[in-house]
Write a structure and sequence with these properties.
The complex is a heterodimer of chains A (about 120) and B (about 170). Chain A is mostly helical and about 120 residues long. Chain A is built from five helices and three strands. The longest helix of chain A has about 40 residues. Chain B has five helices and eight strands; from the N terminus they run αββααββββββαα. The chains are: A mainly alpha (about 120), B alpha+beta (about 170).
Chain lengths: ~120, ~170
């Protein structure tokens, strides 16, 4: 898991801040969270254009976005390793619980095949 | 070896997860049974309904329909006490190769993952690999941020709470 936080991300961060608009967006988000629409208006830019800039900052781990209803809100800062680890653990738990149920079903079906096989050979 | 088997018997075999890349999460598990039974359990509605929503999730099936062929769709409708109305989980099958491989889309939210199920049978046991591949890093990050797991929306607080409790226990 750790490897994703090494060099490629570092390179992306440098590429991300090489652009004046993106530096402006970071500065803006440093003051307050903002929606993509608000950022587009402030920087006098199309929604599509601002989405691209935010996408670059997001990929670089400098900005996170959350979509609530139809509004995507941007905040400064990358996602922590802890949050990711917690999500992965919840995801694992969900599958572990399902798979324990699936085990029971597999066992039932195996027994059923066995008894069906016995009946067929009679 | 015997000790390992004994502990597996008590807690169930290990389910492992791994973030394989910045847009892919992989789950692995070994089952004591042939691949064809497991494939059936993933594709036949009357079997899916028996294991997909363990009681502890607090979710119940309202209906389950599958049209298992490339391009065919599935629709799982589920209810939860916190839902105003039942929720549908929908998508379509991309690859169908029984009993080894099944690939489907998850379309209940935009930027959903494509799931690939691979079953490899050896000596009566089946090694299961499930990959959730998101269209972009941002999409997987978003799934993580919303707390959604396996296509479940934020409303699944009960499940989150339960899993957190189990983790703490």
């Amino acid at each position: 898991m750790v490897q994703f936080y090494q060099t490629p991300r570092f390179d992306r961060a440098f590429a991300a801040i090489s652009d004046a608009t993106r530096r402006g967006v970071l500065e803006q988000l440093g003051r307050a969270d903002a929606s993509i629409t608000e950022l587009a208006e402030r920087f006098d830019m199309t929604l599509t254009g601002m989405k691209k800039h935010v996408g670059v900052l997001e990929q670089a781990g400098l900005v996170t976005t959350r979509k609530i209803g139809r509004v995507r809100t941007c905040s400064l800062g990358g996602r922590g390793l802890e949050e990711e680890a917690a999500w992965i653990e919840r995801y694992r738990q969900m599958w572990a619980e399902r798979f324990n149920e699936l085990d029971k079903l597999v066992e039932q079906l195996k027994q059923k095949e066995k008894s069906d096989g016995r009946n067929a050979s009679k | 070896m015997d000790a390992m088997r004994a502990s597996e018997h008590m807690r169930g075999p290990m389910t492992k997860t791994d973030r394989r890349s910045d847009r892919e999460v992989v789950v692995t598990r070994i089952f004591d049974g042939p691949a064809r039974i497991i494939f059936d359990a993933w594709t036949q509605p009357e079997l899916i309904m028996q294991w997909w929503t363990p009681k502890s999730f607090g979710i119940t099936f309202v209906s389950c329909e599958t049209d298992v062929r490339p391009g065919g769709t599935y629709r799982y409708v589920m209810g939860h006490p916190n839902f105003d109305q039942p929720m549908a989980f929908v998508g379509k099958y991309i690859e169908v190769d029984p009993p080894r491989r099944l690939v489907w889309t998850n379309e209940e939210s935009e930027d959903g993952s494509v799931t690939t199920l691979t079953l490899e049978e050896k000596d009566g046991k089946t090694h299961l690999v499930l990959s959730d591949l998101y269209p972009s890093k941002a999409a997987l990050d978003e799934a993580m941020a919303s707390g959604a797991i396996g296509g479940y929306p934020e409303q699944f607080d009960a499940l989150d709470a339960l899993l957190a409790e189990k983790r703490a226990a």
